[in-house]
Amino acid sequence: MAVDESVISKLEKLAKLKLTDLERTEMKGDLEKMLNMVDKLSEVDTNGVEPLVYMHEEKNVLRTDKVANVLSREEGLKNAPNRVKTYFAVPKVIKK
Q: Which of 40, 51, 70, 80 has most Cβ atoms within 10 angstroms of its Cβ?
């Protein structure tokens, strides 16, 4: 895949970035390096290699869920620094 101005523009739009010309040039170079690195994988001979589903043979040990020592809503909220009725109040982090 060739990295050209249209690819950079699409990425800039998707990431909601406004890049300078220098940053666009640097990004193009970095993306080309990454793609070249991934392209190296095509040089590896994988004939006769079984595909991996899991990296190890260990099984995940699961347990059944048991309800125990349940806090009431008031107990859970009693140390909350800020609350609105029965909810934790947190500072707004998303700006429009």
A: 80
Each residue's pLDDT tens digit, 43-93: 999 899 888 887 888 888 898 988 888 888 888 898 899 999 989 999 888
| Rounded alpha-carbon distances, angstroms, from residue 55 to 40, 51, 52, 58, 59 | 22, 10, 7, 9, 11
Q: Are 41 and 34 in contact (CB under 8 A)?
A: no
Using CA atoms, how far apart are residues 1 and 25, in angstroms rounded to an integer? 17
Of 25, 24, 30, residue with least CA distance to 12: 24
For domain 5-43, give the fold: Histone, subunit A (1.10.20)
